[in-house]
Amino acid sequence: MKNKTLSRRTFLAYLGTGAVTIAAASTGLGAFTGSAAASDLLFDRKTGKVTDAFAPIEPGAGDELVVPKGFRHDVLVSFGDPINGKGDTFGYNNEFTRFFPFDDKQVNGLLWVNHASVHPLLALDQRQPGPLGADQVKSLLYNQGASIVEAYRDREGKWKITPDSAYGRRITGYDRVELAGPARGTHAVKGAALVQGTFGNGAGSVTPWGTVLSCEGDFEITCGSAGLELSHYGWVVEADPFDGNFKLRKHTALGRFHHGQLAATLSKDGRVVVYMGDTTPDSCLYKFVSAGKFNASAGKANADLLTEGTLYAADLVNGRWVPLTIEAVKKALNRDDFQVPFGVNQIKEVLVERYKEQADVLVYAQDAALILGATPTDRPAGLAVHAKSGALIAAYPNNIRHGNIHGHLAQLAEQDSDAGATAFDYEIVSNGGRSSGYSSPGTLLFDDRSNLWVASDIPAAKLNQGAYAPFRNNGLYVVRTAGQDAAAAQLFASAPIEATLTGPCFTADERTLFLSVSHPGHATAQPGKPTSTWPHRSGDSGPRPSVVAISGFA
């Protein structure tokens, strides 16, 4: 990539087909009206014949991963498997995946996999509540973060890993990670420039320059168990899957909160835009817009673009992106009529003392967003950018406290189809439930035909009962966005007992789908009595979170 400018076509080709979740330039939405039906941008019932049809499966409640007839799945790598010759092993509760091929053949490459959490009994052998022992803390920190494994497809079409690969490595709660951007070295992070490790890594994305952005989601329990400073976690971490010498860095300009899925793209004028969601209830939707412009010839040096720019939160009521600045926060707090907004659990006097400089806004981004009028939502956990329209699709799994049982999909269409705009149109385009065929949408992925792949995230304690009973175990659904079946959800995969299916990723030729099977046996509470034993490997007495490779696509 020698050109300094990057067209939409070149950008998507660079990232590979099947990477539409992480990149789309602005096209085809026409003039912004402020009141047009955004659903027309996602669902097109007149065009787009689907050529990769499959026979949808029925919801299942068994302890198996079920895929349609004509497809196969290979368990590629599981918790505890060796991934290199140095003794490193695959971590727990794998989620986000991304495949980086060695060449255009798409049959050998590196697979990046995030690790979000550990099960206290199944992974740590914690049999009683209370403080963890030293070995348990070591396992807690080691088995989160990320794994980089070498994967290949053999002559029989079966996907495997190279267990002694020179490329295989771990990123854990013990690595040294730089804080980059405005909060580095400030009072808000206790003066730190280097911090210990990364964990709670659920979602992720890929940058235009080929690095991975890994999101720290739930981090408080690990911080408490390991005695680590809270302000050092809840960031977006950048790493290079091919280069172990690339300095791991947490981009503080992107804000600190419980990061869900993110989606990276470019504005019309070439600035980097990163959309972000927060996985906690009553949280906001965010985006970061870089100050500088992407330069393809600069390569990995483009990482510096994520250190300077503007962090926004979405005011869905008024269709505007609210810049999160210290000046605006101070002005709001100093108003005589200021009232602490819903969701902020501090009194005014504490907030006035907290927010002194821009770093404080970034470290306490959620409260700052609410103070400035951003809209609290039912946790925007999944995000994807529609390739044809450039619109952002957000998945809200559920919020039982608000009566939102089955969640919904929403669409945000930027003014003039420009990801760098400060105004947008927003509406819910699909509600979960029996009428739509899915419940609790979580991770999202667009394929190259603009089919939307939706992984459900029904809580383990609610599966197969009450309002969730018709959906049985969690699943992976395909929502057609074109043709006569547009907006209809079809079940492609059904998870084992209590598991979630997450982190779907296609190879660029879309012949293989990598998929994380996370949290199998999540409700296990007694030693020796696991609720699941998937993937049922010889010699195993309990479940193992795993990544599978699904093949059979035309």
Automatic annotation (TrEMBL):
One protein family per Pfam: PhoX
InterPro entries: PhoX, TAT_signal
Keywords: Signal
Lineage summary: Bacteria, Bacillati, Bacillota, Bacilli, Bacillales
Protein name stated in the entry: PhoX family phosphatase
Record flagged with keyword Signal: yes
Keyword Plastid appears in the UniProt entry: no
Natural source organism: Paenibacillus oleatilyticus
PROSITE patterns: TAT
Endpoints of the signal sequence: 1-25
Region called Disordered, residue ranges: 519-546
Domain of life: Bacteria
Listed SUPFAM superfamilies: Calcium-dependent phosphotriesterase
